[in-house]
Predict the structure.
Amino acid sequence: MIEIQQQQQINPEEAEPLTQREICIKVLGKKSGYFRGLGNGPRPTSTHGVDTSEADRLHGIISSQQSRLDSQDVELQEQKKIIDQLESRLSEFEGMMQQFFSSQGTAFRFTNSAIQ
């Protein structure tokens, strides 16, 4: 590197002036993964700094969770239908009980506390 700089100083009109980066590339060669001052070190996993295998793993987890959420939503809707049916049957039984007690001459009334 020093030799190239000295050659440029000796014959400035013969050589095209090079930047420090261009001199480094000429001396060291262009190597992917080469870090100036550190040598060949760890390479980034991608240009965005995100490991693609990690991203794929996270997408898999998201997909799995979405499927699970969808199935739970279906199960919740089915349970709501069952609750509605049970409330309807309870209402019918209350009506039958009131008819029975009124035919017996006894006053009977359901309250919310009796239902729960």
Notes: Residues 2-40 form one domain. The longest helix spans residues 52-103. Helices lie at 2-10, 20-28, 52-103, 112-115. The radius of gyration is 41 Å.
